[in-house]
């Protein structure tokens, strides 16, 4: 086994208070593709800065092999002090390697950037692409990336995935983008309550592995003081509760997608009764052959859609393709040059845009949610105690009265979401809501959208988020065309015409489009094996649910652990395995039901 390129030994850091983490070890080899995960505020970015040599720990050592080059991408890159984009990227090169400027220009070209462009006035996406080029230009041995996909469009993300897959360096990456992490990582580091746990499998196995650890800890905690057990459960209750409730929401999402697909296939006839008053309140937005041009460029050319109450519509496309323009037309903020937009009756819209209005630093979350005083916040038409509502957004009670300036970036984003989602609305419009959000907040946002009674329009580059939320996806291709597909991002990939892909409006040399699989509607019937599974799975699911209920009933006996520790652990292990089998069975049943519906509607 070769020696690691970068090693951290016995790292402890406390910033003058209680240690953020203590006695951590980390090793990065050339073949490692490591994702660093953990709750917001656990110290992931700080640990990455220690690995980059930017922060000195209170104790411990950072070691690298001789001549090992370590490159680092900050969560918020700063290009100030550099006149042009090329100057900024070239600053990542050694002084004696002027010939490498060619690599810098090539990287910028691949990322769709002009090296002569002034750094002043760059967008968030442009700064991040320039910072990526700077991190990659010196061909490092170890690459440390903190939220590399923030503000990137899908073409840039796919380009980066391909670059990382083909590179020969060690990688440690922090990201909220589950699809990105699943594609590029082969190991996982979990920074949890000051400890660092390693799993030699990529992020796609993280949920199973972490739940296994939490189950084991839950069993062990049963013999300890109740307060300690409650602390452990509380620190993860938001995650585990959402996972247990995920299957019901999946069923609802699949039902909505199936309904959306049936309506899409019958769109020609649906429009005939658009003028009728019988569906008052059900029609939210209708667009008919809308066009928007800026000079000679057609941003949207002849797009039509019909959005009904309860739809969750995702908008995707390269940066600059016209997603926000289309969104603003659909909600009536921007008139089309031609065509017709019709908005439904009694709409109450809540719009969270990319800029994320600033929170006043001296105010507390309590004051922000209850500006008129008192301790009640109106969530829709229902009063909630402000502390209870903040707990829904993973805030501790003490944080309710702490000033906003003491909150982390992720916590401020949670507070903005809490305020936005409390405002009464039946049309929620989100423009890039996943930027700068940690995974816990993303889970929370997905849960809130699943429970939302109204209609959702969302612009996002987060593929996993769209798969979990969207009932239909509008792809703005970058050439004036836009097309709507039932389902999320993965459904868009499956359904788009062969060879059709989002135009690389901002990124050249991106990955080739994945081969398009034939849609299920081209099949005439389920296979015998699929039909048999569809018949047997409901019984299997019911049996597993009954078994789990019985096992949990046995585990609820407070004296069981003391009386028969080995037996209790066997029951707990079987309960965990049964939950996994139940989840897999439900997923298989849902997939087969969707396949059967698609074949029937084909």
Structural features:
602 residues; alpha/beta; Rossmann fold; Helix Hairpins; 3 domains; 6-stranded mixed β-sheet; 20 helices; globular
Would you write up a description of this structure?
This protein has helices at about 45-50, 85-90, 100-110, 125-135, 155-165, 180-185, 205-220, 225-245, 245-265, 265-270, 325-330, 365-370, 385-390, 410-420, 440-450, 465-470, 490-495, 530-555, 560-565, 565-600, and strands at about 5-15, 20-30, 35, 60-65, 70-75, 140-145, 170-175, 185-190, 195-200, 285-295, 295-310, 310-315, 340-345, 350, 375-380, 380-385, 425-430, 455-460, 470-475, 480-485. The chain is α/β, with parallel strands linked by helices. It folds into three domains: about 5-210, Rossmann fold; about 250-350 and about 425-515, P-loop containing nucleotide triphosphate hydrolases (Rossmann fold); about 520-600, Valyl-tRNA synthetase, C-terminal domain (Helix Hairpins, Orthogonal Bundle).
Distance between termini? 55 Å
Radius of gyration: 26 Å
Number of helices: 20
> What are the segments in which pLDDT stays under 50 over at least 5 consecutive residues?
225-235, 263-280, 504-523
Shape verdict? globular
CATH topology name of the largest domain: Rossmann fold
Looking at the overall shape, the CATH architecture of the largest domain is 3-Layer(aba) Sandwich
Order of strands, widest sheet: 5-6-7-3-8-9
What would the average pLDDT be, to the nearest integer? 79
The proportion of strand residues reads 15-25%
What's the main sheet like?
Answer: 6 strands, mixed
The helix content is 40-55%
Identify the CATH homologous superfamily of the largest domain: P-loop containing nucleotide triphosphate hydrolases
CATH level-1 class of the largest domain = Alpha Beta
Structural class: alpha/beta
Structural domains: how many: 3
Number of strands: 20
């Amino acid at each position: 086994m070769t020696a690691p390129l970068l090693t951290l030994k016995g790292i402890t850091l406390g910033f003058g208070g209680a240690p953020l983490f203590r006695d951590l070890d980390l090793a990065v080899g050339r073949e490692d593709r490591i994702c660093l995960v953990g709750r917001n505020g656990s110290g992931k970015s700080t640990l990455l800065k220690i690995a980059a040599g930017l922060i000195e720990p209170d104790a411990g050592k950072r070691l690298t092999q001789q001549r090992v080059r370590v490159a680092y991408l900050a969560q918020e890159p700063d290009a100030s002090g550099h006149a042009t984009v090329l100057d900024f990227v070239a600053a990542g090169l050694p002084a004696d390697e002027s010939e490498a400027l060619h690599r810098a220009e090539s990287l910028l070209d691949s990322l769709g950037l002009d090296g002569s462009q002034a750094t002043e006035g760059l967008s968030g996406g442009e700064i991040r692409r320039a910072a990526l080029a700077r991190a990659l230009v010196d061909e490092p041995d170890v690459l440390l990336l903190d939220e590399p996909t923030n503000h990137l469009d899908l073409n840039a993300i796919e380009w980066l995935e391909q670059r990382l897959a083909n590179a020969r360096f060690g990688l440690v990456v922090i990201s909220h983008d589950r699809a990105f992490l699943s594609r590029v990582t082969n190991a996982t580091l979990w920074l949890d309550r000051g400890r660092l746990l390693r799993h030699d499998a990529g992020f796609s196995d993280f949920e199973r592995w972490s739940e296994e650890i939490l189950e084991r800890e839950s069993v062990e905690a049963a013999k300890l003081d109740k307060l300690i057990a409650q602390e452990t459960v509380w620190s993860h209750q938001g995650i585990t509760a959402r996972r247990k409730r995920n299957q019901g929401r999946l069923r609802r999402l699949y039902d909505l997608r199936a309904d959306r697909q049936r309506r899409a296939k019958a769109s020609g006839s649906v429009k005939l009764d658009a003028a009728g008053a019988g569906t008052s309140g059900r029609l939210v937005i209708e667009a008919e052959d809308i066009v928007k041009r800026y000079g000679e460029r057609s941003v949207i050319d002849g797009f039509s859609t019909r959005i009904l109450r309860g739809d969750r519509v995702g908008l995707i496309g390269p940066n600059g393709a016209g997603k926000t323009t289309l969104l603003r037309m659909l909600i009536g903020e921007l008139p089309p040059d031609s065509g017709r937009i019709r908005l439904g009756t009694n709409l109450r819209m809540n719009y969270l845009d990319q800029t994320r209005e600033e929170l006043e630093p001296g105010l507390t979350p309590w004051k922000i949610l209850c500006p008129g005083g008192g301790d009640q916040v109106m969530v829709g038409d229902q009063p909630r105690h402000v502390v209870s509502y903040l707990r829904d957004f993973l805030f501790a009670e003490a944080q309710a009265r702490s000033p906003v300036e003491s909150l982390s970036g992720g916590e401020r984003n949670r507070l903005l979401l809490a305020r936005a989602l409390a405002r009464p609305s039946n049309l929620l419009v989100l423009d890039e809501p996943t930027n700068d959000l940690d995974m816990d907040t993303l889970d929370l946002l997905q849960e809130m959208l699943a429970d939302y009674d109204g209609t959702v329009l969302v612009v996002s580059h987060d593929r996993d988020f769209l798969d979990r939320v969207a009932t239909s996806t509008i792809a703005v291709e970058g050439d004036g065309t836009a097309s709507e597909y039932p389902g999320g991002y993965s459904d868009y990939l499956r359904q788009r015409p062969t060879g059709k892909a989002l135009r690389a409006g901002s990124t050249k040399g991106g990955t080739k489009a994945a081969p398009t699989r034939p849609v299920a509607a081209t099949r005439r019937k389920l296979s015998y094996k699929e039909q048999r599974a569809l018949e047997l799975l409901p019984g299997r699911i019911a049996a597993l649910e009954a078994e789990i209920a019985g096992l949990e009933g046995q585990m609820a006996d407070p004296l069981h652990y003391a009386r028969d520790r080995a037996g209790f652990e066997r029951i707990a292990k079987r309960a965990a395995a049964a939950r996994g089998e139940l989840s897999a069975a439900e997923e298989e049943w849902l997939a087969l039901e969707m396949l059967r519906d698609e074949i029937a509607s084909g």
